[in-house]
Specification:
The complex is a heterodimer of chains A (558) and B (299). Chain A has 558 residues and is α+β, with helices and mostly antiparallel strands. Chain A has 21 helices and eight strands. The radius of gyration of chain A is 31 Å and the shape is globular. With 299 residues, chain B is of the alpha/beta class. Chain B has eleven helices and 14 strands. Chain B has a six-stranded mixed beta sheet, with helices on both faces. In chain B, strands 2-1-4-5 form a four-stranded antiparallel beta sheet, covered by helices on one side. In chain B, helix 4 packs antiparallel against helix 5. Chain B is elongated. The chains are: A alpha+beta (558), B alpha/beta (299). At the A-B interface, helix 1 and helix 6 of A face helix 2, strand 6 and helix 3 of B.
């Protein structure tokens, strides 16, 4: 006969959440005190400086520190809260309590997030109060936005780290895989960028973009920094939100599928070991290959293979606590080298069309080009830039790579869809002289320079003239500089690119100029050879040697 | 009722449980016996929903226990080595269990505190192995589960505490109708308290029987004749085992005691005696009859 027993109405999931919070309350208090000491404690201790500082300083540095603390704390708490998974004794207790796996994951994870948020919320509130006392209300709004960014960064870090927590089988292997994959991915980004730079014609070095693709931590970190450089970006929140959903769903699925008996093994899921092993083997391959050969020669690939296998075997030994899995580790090492070789071959063959891709004229909003001896030249009509770009692709000469006289050409298109299309070339200018001179002599090149001097803050332009290694430090009045510039522009139409860039040519002059613009400082250089007769004659007529010290500045009055 | 159908659990390449099927009726004490690595703990973890079966089904009242809070709230599983939250004491653990199990009974907890002499405010990590086992049992019993699963329950308990635990379980069965599943590698520990027994070996259930039925149905007969008779005279009996030392013949026979003794007496022995075999003997005879190497199983 079953005796009826009274049953209370309880919510085990909510109780698990509360219990986890209570269990860590001491730690939260400590972290909160430490966080408050850093921010705004440090600010209060420097109040004298802050009163005179721009309010933006308050809303830049400190939220960054708080975000780092918040993200670090939430990741650490996730590790602590799920340590029970890594021992049979503890998982017996936690996995047999009346909760679904999803409820268990969410309650523990949410508890970790909430108590990571406590010090951050308090710090932001304190920061807001301090800023409100010493600065404008705009800064407070900015802090509120920063808080939203911090929370989003924490959510991404928390959900991403949960994948590692669920996949690991022991705390040691959790730390190894977490560090291995996340640091490894950053190193892989640098390696990929190096390979692309070496192999893809026109590749525009952008390690950060690769890092943002492979590492969620870098993605949110750079997104947060972008806020300070640009402005509030709703897209950041949308992208991060999608990532949080994906990572959370993945964690829940993996947690539900996780075999409890794998607690105590290195990993509950083998794929995390394979991924980590591949990443660090890839790094090992490049490291050893580069150590023994500066270029992608046969020697490089032999040592790359050795490096990858060595790292894979070492990692396997650490993971399995034995060398018995030697064969599998060798296979992973070989795979990592093969992956690198495939990337190399693809890059050598144009990077899946990257090297030959040019945007359509109708898709371009504006274009800019930057090459030796010029400032960046902006074009609303991209025709001239497209002409140079086509010429660069059509006349591509691989032998240029060994030419020590090659120089850079950077092209940037801003597309109508908001994206940026960027290419960087290092080529022999003489092959593209016509296109380069068209750009050099274009109105778009000179007009901005001339307008700068017209509106200049100072009425003089400091110059240094280098004439056959004979240096003159002097100045020109704004009018004189403009006259000099007119003559230079006129005569540059009759010259060629080689003369412009050959600094060592006999009789070559370089004029370095700098001055205070209305909004900022500007500087640049103009190069001219013997064919610039009128320009040279004008400078000679000014007796620049006599002008050793600048006249007293007359401040520009609006 | 706990019911397993073709239950299979595989660890790597080893089958820890291989198509195991059994039923455990409500309101009984079920003893699970087997040597180390036979699959006892795995079976308990599958019942409690800690492990997910790789094949077959296991559940309570027809509902699978894995990932099912309703079923899990009726089960309390106590592993072979008790686990407590880091730095916790018995009071804190009681709060934890109380927040997880809806039937957790404070009065029962207080009563058990009087039975087990433990300091509820002392850190559990400072307790001896036996004390930790007592603490874990207290928490399990206070949760008032319908099913209590005890893995190597008596491990670390002294004789007095073993008796106390046995009484508590028997009391639970009688008063609240609980079902206890107790695993042990020692058959003698379970002899006096179990209603049913199952023997696990290499992931398979070799024997799953009712204790009373086994006791009533198996007899050890010692008989002596003036001369040595042909062994074929016993062929009318369901003999499991037969041994003879000199003129003394020992028989293990299945069947009704009276019928067996009447037949033996009809053979005009000089001496005939029927002895009740111990539980261990009964299992040894049963298993030997099915061709198993008993020494390896009941080690």
């Amino acid at each position: 006969m079953t005796l009826k027993t009274s049953s209370r109405k309880i919510n085990p999931a909510l109780n698990m959440f509360g219990f986890t919070i209570r269990k860590n309350i001491g730690l939260i208090v400590l972290i909160t005190i430490a966080t408050l000491l850093i921010c705004p404690g440090f600010i209060i201790s420097n109040l004298e400086n802050i009163k005179t500082a721009d309010s933006e300083i308050l809303s830049v540095d400190n939220p960054c520190i708080l975000t780092v603390i918040g993200c670090g704390t939430v990741v650490v708490f996730n590790l602590i809260n799920f340590l029970f998974l890594y021992s049979k004794r503890s998982s017996d207790v936690f996995l047999s309590v009346p909760l679904t796996r999803t409820e268990l994951l969410v309650s523990r994870c949410l508890a970790g997030f909430v108590f990571s948020l406590i010090p951050i919320v308090l710090s932001y509130i304190s920061l807001g109060i301090v800023v409100n006392l010493v600065s404008t209300s705009t800064a407070v709004t900015s802090i509120a936005i920063c808080f939203a960014y911090t929370v989003m960064c924490m959510l991404v870090c928390s959900s991403f780290s949960m994948i590692f927590v669920v996949c690991a089988g022991s705390a040691f292997d959790l730390v190894v895989s977490f560090a291995g994959i996340n640091i490894g991915l950053i190193v892989v980004s640098v390696i990929l960028s190096t390979i692309f730079e070496e192999c893809i014609y026109g590749y525009s070095t952008d390690v950060l973009s690769i890092m943002k693709i492979v590492s969620p931590f870098v993605l949110v970190g750079s997104g947060f920094c972008d806020y300070f450089n640009n402005s509030f970006d709703l897209l950041f929140f949308i992208k991060s939100g999608i990532l949080v959903i994906i990572f959370t769903l993945l964690s829940v699925i993996l947690f539900n599928k996780r075999k409890a008996e794998r607690g105590g093994d290195a990993y509950a899921y083998r794929f995390i070991y394979v991924i980590c092993s591949l990443i660090i083997s890839f790094c090992g391959a490049f490291f050893l290959g580069s150590l023994f050969s500066g270029d992608f020669t046969v020697k490089f690939w032999i040592f790359a293979l050795i490096g990858a296998v060595l790292v894979a075997v070492a990692y396997s030994a650490v993971t399995h606590r034995t060398f018995k899995n030697f064969k599998g580790a060798v296979m992973i090492g070989v795979c990592a080298t093969v992956v690198m070789a495939i990337i190399f071959i693809i890059s050598q063959n144009g990077g899946l069309g990257y090297a030959s891709r040019i945007p359509q004229k109708q898709d371009i909003k504006n274009a800019s080009v930057h090459f030796f001896a010029t400032d960046t030249i902006e074009y609303n009509d991209p025709s001239k830039v497209l002409s140079l770009h086509k010429s660069l692709i059509n006349n591509k000469d691989k032998s240029d790579k060994d030419d020590t006289d090659k120089r850079y050409i950077d092209i940037i298109y801003r597309l109508k869809n908001g994206k940026k299309f960027e290419r960087e070339y290092t080529v022999d200018y003489s092959k593209y002289g016509k296109e380069l001179m068209t750009l050099y002599n274009s109105d778009e090149h000179w007009k901005p320079l001339k307008s700068k001097f017209k509106d200049s803050h100072s009425l003089t332009v400091s110059i240094t003239i280098n004439n056959n290694d004979s240096w003159i430090n002097s100045y020109l009045t704004a009018d004189e500089f403009n006259e000099f510039l007119d003559l230079y522009i006129e005569e540059s139409k009759n010259t060629n690119i080689v003369e412009l860039i050959m600094r060592t040519e006999n009789g070559c002059n370089i004029v370095y100029y700098w001055g205070d613009g209305k909004d900022n400082f500007y500087n640049g250089s103009l190069i001219f050879g013997n064919s610039f007769k009128n320009t040279k004659a004008y400078l000679d007529s000014l007796d620049l040697n006599e002008r050793t010290s600048e006249p007293e500045r007359i401040d520009y009055v609006d | 009722m706990i019911k397993a159908e073709n239950l299979t659990k595989i660890f790597g390449e080893k089958k820890a449980l291989d198509s195991v099927s059994f039923e455990i009726d409500d309101g009984s004490i079920y003893g699970l016996v087997g040597s180390n690595g036979s699959g006892k703990s795995t079976l308990l973890r599958l019942i409690s929903g800690v492990y997910r079966p790789d094949g077959g089904r296991i559940g309570v009242d027809g509902i699978d226990s894995f990932n099912n809070p309703t079923v899990k709230s009726q089960i309390s599983f106590l592993g072979d080595t008790p686990y407590f939250l880091p730095q916790s004491n018995l009071q804190e653990m009681a709060r934890f269990y109380s927040s997880m199990y809806p039937k957790f009974d404070r009065d029962m907890y207080k009563y058990l505190l009087s039975v087990f002499p433990l300091n509820p405010k002392a850190r559990l990590s400072s307790f001896s192995k036996g004390m930790q086992r007592q603490a874990a049992l207290m928490l399990s019993l206070s949760s008032l589960p319908r099913y209590i699963l005890l893995d190597e329950a008596f491990d670390g308990l002294d004789v007095v505490m073993r008796r106390v635990l046995a009484n508590l379980l028997i009391e639970g069965v009688e008063k609240r109708g609980i079902t206890a599943v107790i695993s042990s590698h020692n058959l003698r520990e379970l002899e006096d308290m179990c209603d049913r027994l199952g023997i696990l070996h290499n992931g398979k259930i070799l024997l799953n029987g009712d204790m009373e039925g086994l006791r009533l149905n198996m007899h050890k007969v010692q008989v002596a004749f003036s001369g040595v008779p042909e062994m074929s005279v016993f062929s009318k009996l369901d003999v499991i085992k037969i041994e003879h030392t000199g003129s003394l013949i020992s028989l293990v026979v299945k069947g009704d005691e009276d019928e067996i003794m009447n037949y033996i007496k009809s053979l005009s022995p000089v001496f005939a005696e029927c002895i009740e075999p111990t539980l261990e003997e009964m299992f040894v005879y049963e298993l030997e009859a099915t061709g198993y190497d008993v020494k390896n199983i009941l080690s």
